[in-house]
């Protein structure tokens, strides 16, 4: 069967609002390490990892064998009505490394459900359905998660079980913070929070939820320390702080294990997903015991934290810690960031090379302006593919190229990918728009 057949069949049976990447979409049929091969036999270095999800890479023996061992027991599923050894072990590890004292963990299948669970406990704990969310955020696809998602392109419904008030994002190219110097940005964002609390809420807000680096939002992030400054204000009235670490967790930012740690703050709740399963459906929320225990009825997830996904999760986390992949993300990420900044940072179509560790974005604009250039972004994106590199796209205006490779990326692979990226950006900049 050819890919074209598969594309036609895909289009005939799957909804069009679930987009495919590329003018000529590809099917990935095998993978190893940081490389994947498509149905035409073309090989790619993968700098997007299935949206930052293949965090360790493809076909990692330690993870494959852990899953095979669990499969061999015959118990793929038991439900959480029975003790699940792999789940308890993983919860113990996550509670320990979360940085949250006396933590409890609840497992789900997706980041969306993890955020739903965080909202469930926060709203029950505070007896309030008022939430503070951040513009340009993405938190998932349920009604509540869409309701706290500040991006029109991903908001498929206005139905919302929550009352949401919006804070400015960390965007520093346009908007509130762009007009200020670095020293004034935190003060301005705190002032914004106080004003939103005073003008758009009825007090008694349940929580503020924020991504340390906005993933879908194009890797926009606020100045370090902002979350602590926000939390000081939140603490005045007991408002909880939730860190959505679905993209930033597990050492990806290089400098820290969790994104929130760049801010000198400990969240009350933290949500995780994507990378911890390395492709197996595994996500959850970890939080202060008194908050997580505040659900007043039975609530469970049939598949959440099942024996297979948590067997994978344990193997992923052990591998990550044993190989100190956070340090690798810092080291290899610096090669990419420095290389991009020096090779293309000066081009007048590149507004910014930003991000941390192995979470890097390049924002494209019309030369000499801050006007987004999504067409240029698509050209670069397609040129990367032609050169043998898979990357991602994002940003409120679709004008940010996103890189989130597996944390096992080697220095050699980073240099190889960098060369493809630089070529793709330079050649795309030369094409008249
Ligand atoms: C920051 C963040 N939160 C939540 C989600 C939702 O996760 P899922 O797609 O697993 O439901 C995503 C997905 O991209 C995300 O990036």
UniProtKB/TrEMBL annotation:
GO molecular function: transaminase activity
Record SUPFAM superfamilies: PLP-dependent transferases
Superkingdom, taxonomy of origin: Bacteria
Subunit-level organization: Homotetramer.
Pfam families per record: Aminotran_3 (PF00202)
Gene3D superfamilies cross-referenced by the UniProt entry: Aspartate Aminotransferase, domain 1 (3.90.1150.10), Type I PLP-dependent aspartate aminotransferase-like (Major domain) (3.40.640.10)
Keyword Chaperone on entry: no
PANTHER family assigned: ALANINE--GLYOXYLATE AMINOTRANSFERASE 2, MITOCHONDRIAL, PTHR45688
Protein family (similarity comment): Belongs to the class-III pyridoxal-phosphate-dependent aminotransferase family.
Cofactor or coenzyme needed: pyridoxal 5'-phosphate
The protein's name in its UniProt record: alanine--glyoxylate transaminase
Keywords assigned by UniProt, alphabetized: Aminotransferase, Pyridoxal phosphate, Transferase
Enzyme superclass (EC): transferase
EC number: 2.6.1.44
């Amino acid at each position: 069967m050819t890919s074209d057949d598969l594309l036609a069949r895909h289009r005939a049976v799957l909804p069009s609002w679930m987009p495919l990447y590329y003018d000529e979409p590809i099917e990935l049929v095998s993978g190893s390490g940081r490389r994947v091969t498509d149905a035409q036999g073309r090989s790619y270095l993968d700098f997007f990892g299935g949206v930052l999800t293949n965090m360790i890479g493809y076909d990692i023996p330690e993870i494959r064998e852990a899953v095979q061992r669990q499969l061999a027991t015959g118990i793929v599923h038991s439900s959480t009505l029975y003790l699940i050894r792999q789940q308890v072990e993983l919860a113990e590890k996550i509670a320990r490394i979360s940085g949250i004292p006396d933590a409890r963990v609840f497992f789900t299948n997706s980041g969306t459900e993890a955020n739903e669970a965080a909202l469930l406990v926060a709203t029950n704990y505070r007896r309030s359905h008022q939430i503070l969310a951040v513009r340009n955020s993405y938190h998932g696809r349920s009604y509540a998660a869409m309701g706290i998602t500040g991006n029109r392109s991903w908001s498929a419904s206005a139905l919302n079980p929550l009352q949401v008030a919006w804070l400015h994002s960390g965007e520093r190219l346009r908007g509130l913070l762009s007009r200020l110097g670095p020293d004034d940005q935190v003060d301005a964002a705190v002032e914004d929070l106080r004003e939103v609390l005073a003008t758009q809420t009825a007090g008694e807000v349940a929580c503020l939820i924020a991504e340390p680096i906005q993933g879908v939002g194009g890797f926009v992030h606020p100045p370090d320390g902002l979350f602590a400054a926000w939390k000081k204000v939140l603490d005045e009235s007991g408002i909880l702080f939730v860190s959505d670490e679905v993209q930033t967790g597990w050492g990806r930012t290089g400098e820290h294990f969790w994104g929130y740690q760049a801010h000198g703050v400990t969240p009350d709740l933290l949500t995780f997903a994507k990378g911890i399963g390395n492709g197996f459906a595994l996500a959850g929320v970890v939080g202060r015991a008194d908050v997580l225990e505040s659900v007043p009825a039975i609530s469970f997830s049939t598949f959440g934290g099942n024996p297979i996904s948590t067997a994978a999760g344990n193997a992923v986390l052990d591998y990550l810690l044993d190989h100190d992949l956070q340090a690798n993300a810092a080291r290899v990420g610096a090669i990419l960031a420095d290389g991009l900044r020096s090779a293309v940072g000066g081009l007048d179509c590149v507004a910014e090379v930003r991000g941390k560790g192995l979470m890097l974005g390049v924002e494209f604009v019309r030369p000499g302006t801050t006007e987004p250039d999504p067409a240029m972004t698509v050209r670069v994106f397609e040129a990367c593919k032609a050169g043998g590199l898979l990357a991602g796209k994002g940003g409120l205006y679709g004008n940010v190229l996103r890189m989130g490779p597996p944390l096992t990326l080697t220095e050699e692979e980073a240099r190889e990918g960098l060369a493809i990226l630089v070529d793709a950006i330079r050649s795309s900049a030369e094409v008249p728009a």
